[in-house]
Amino acid sequence: MSLLALDNVFVSFGGVAAVRGVTLRVEEGEIRGLIGPNGAGKTSLINSITGVVRPGGGAIAFDGHEITALAPDVIAARGIGRSFQHVELFREGTVLDNVLTGLYRHHVYGVAAAIAGWGRVRRVEDEARREALGLLEAFDLAPLALVPVRDLPFGIQKRIDLARALAVQPRLLLLDEPISGMSEAEADAAVGMLRDLAERRHITLLVVEHNMRVMMRLASRITVMHQGEILSEGLPAEIRANPAVVEAYLGEDDEHA
User: Fold this and answer.
1) Which among 168, 186, 213 is the end of a domain?
2) Considering the chain, what percentage of its residues have pLDDT values greater than 70?
3) Domain co-membership, 180 together with 257
4) Domain edge (last residue) among 150, 168, 186
5) 63 shares a domain with 107
6) What are the two backbone dihedrals, phi and then psi, of residue 174, each rounded to the nearest 5 degrees?
7) Do 139 and 204 share a structural domain?
8) What is the edge-to-edge ordering of all strands in the sheet holding 16-26?
9) Could you tell me if residue 184 is inside a domain?
């Protein structure tokens, strides 16, 4: 049984089809790349999986259970996390504060527990702080822990967004252009971090990315979307050598990928 299963999924906006009958299987433990030109339907597909938009047709299942009509918070609670193409951080908060927000559902306590035992509450908060600081270390963000997010460049904010997404402790993590805005050196480091963390934390990744050089290094398999449909699937080398993919997406930029 696949961890994520999409069957004949359609997504439309104002009568215009963004996703046209997509059927997709993502296996537990894999790093799946999702590529395609602008307007191919990649982000719309991600939004349908996370409940941000409701498909107009088809079915989506996670770990054998249908999630097609569930609300985003319910889907997240079942173990699906995401990052965003345009980072959505709490700009007035510190780097540490933002990563701590990702841990909220794993470190919660009620009012009664808070009244009954401040010591227990303090232990829970200390544990969350240690976990958050560990993620900051993994993404080379620890020296910036107490810096307000608003004062940091976009490339660093993308790394904060990744750390927060991992803090949710998802089984499946959807990453929408995770390295956009990073330098080549930052992108290379992020790829290594993502592969290592995914393996150590047993997280399955579905990654939307335009940087083909990065995608070829990161993904174990790649799915190509074009005009809302799946054009091709295969190993990175197979995708790079596919004439239809080159024509639809890579084009002249392929020699630089």
Assistant:
1) 168
2) 88
3) yes
4) 168
5) no
6) -100, 120
7) no
8) 16-26, 4-13, 57-62, 65-66
9) yes
Whether 209 and 141 map to the same domain: the answer is no
pLDDT reading at 198 higher than 80: yes
Which residues are CB-contacts of 33 (< 8 A; sequence separation ≥ 6)? Answer: 207, 209, 215, 218, 219, 221, 222, 223, 236
Please list, residue by residue across 200-236, b when 16 or more beta carbons sit within 10 angstroms of its beta carbon and e when fewer do.
Answer: eeebbbbbbbbbbebbbebbebbbbbbebebbbbeeb
Per the structure block, which two tokens stand in for 117? 């035992």
Q: What angle do CA 138, 190, 235 make, to 5 degrees?
A: 125
The strand pair at 57-62 and 4-13 is best described as antiparallel
How far apart are alpha carbons 152 and 141 in whole angstroms? 11
Q: State the pairing for strand pair 4-13/65-66.
A: unpaired
CA triple 253-196-125, angle to 5 deg = 125
Written as six digits, the tokens of 160 are 């904060």
Name which of 103-112, 176-185, 194-203 the model is least confident about.
103-112
Same domain, 64 and 187: yes
In a domain, 66, yes or no: yes
The answer to whether 24 and 46 are in contact (CB under 8 A) is no
Retrieve residue 60's tokens: 């989506």
Number of domains in the chain: 2
Which percentage of the chain shows pLDDT scores above 90? 46
Same domain, 131 and 247: no
Residue 84 lies in a domain: no
**Rounded Cα–Cα distance for residues 174 and 80 (Å):** 8
If asked whether residues 74 and 184 sit together in one domain, one would say yes
Query: For position 250, what pLDDT does the model report?
Result: 55
- pLDDT at position 48: 96
85 belongs to a structural domain: no
In the structure encoding, which two tokens stand for residue 75, read together? 């889907």
